[in-house]
Amino acid sequence: MIGRSGNPTLNDKTFEQVQGHYGPDAMTLEGTVNKSFITLAILLGAAFCTWAMYFRGENVIPYAIGGAIGGLILSLIISFKPSASRVLVPVYAALEGLFLGALSANYEAKFDGITLQAAMLTIAVFLGLLLAYKSRLIRATENFKLGVVAATAGIAIVYLINFVLSFFGMNVPYLHDNGLIGIGISLIIVAVAALNLVLDFDFIESGVQQGAPKYMEWYGAFGLLVTLVWLYIEMLRLLAKLRSRD
After folding, report:
1. Would you say 15 and 207 are in contact if contact means Cβ atoms under 8 Å apart?
2. What are phi and psi of 118, to 5 degrees?
3. Among 59, 95, 159, 243, which has the minimal tally of Cβ within 10 Å of its Cβ?
4. Of 150, 145, 160, 157, nearest to 202 (Cα)?
5. How far is CA 177 from CA 94, 119, 120, 225, 242, in A?
6. d(CA 178, CA 208)
7. What is the pLDDT of residue 70?
8. 202: CB partners within 8 A, 6+ apart
């Protein structure tokens, strides 16, 4: 059986009913990489739109909210119906881009150059972990997977609690602080987000080996995009905490 991934879009049962495809109808690593680049290009294109609108003084809040809510809805549909990923993943990437562009522009307005720094760090972490995974310096063992999944679930619960508390004008202590504890928390979250990439690499590789159908290339690209966006946002938050201490 394919191992679990901390990424909620890539879980144990994703490939259970879709194995045994070979030849042109089978999922390939090259195809997944190509579709990952396509989804990333769509996301960046949409992000540039809201970014440019923000700095022209236009109201981007409707686009940001619409992108966030629409992206969440589509991510749930894709997760439960992977066969729809070839159609829905490009749309998801565009919606996520609208949200991410507005968010990035807001951070950039407060801290000049922060978005480029966050993007470069995200790319560096991605390439570093990919190299470590391909060279087997990092192995996705069962204990490793369990640890990352547990940590990811814990972070999700903390963010959910913080979201609920925000309606009452409160936040989880230290989560948004720029003190040493707050920065330490952000470093831990960045590390967990990064380690999810290792599980995603392993999961996609397993899907290729087990003969998943061609449309799962889009699903694999979707899973990687979810993790990369999370990692980038956490990089932004960490850098913002560090810059606000100056």
Report:
1. yes
2. -65, -40
3. 59
4. 145
5. 31, 22, 24, 28, 10
6. 43
7. 96
8. 3, 5, 133, 140
9-49 pLDDT tens trace: 555 455 555 555 555 778 999 999 999 999 999 999 999 99
Could you tell me the pTM of the whole model? Answer: 0.89
Return d(Cα 214, Cα 32) in angstroms, integer: 9
What pLDDT is recorded for position 44? 97
Label residue 32 exposed, middle or buried (CB < 10 Å: 0-12, 13-18, 19+): buried
- b/e code 81-113 from CB counts within 10 Å (16+ = b): ebeebeebbbebbbbbbbbbbbbbbebbeebee
> Which tokens is 56 given?
């022209």
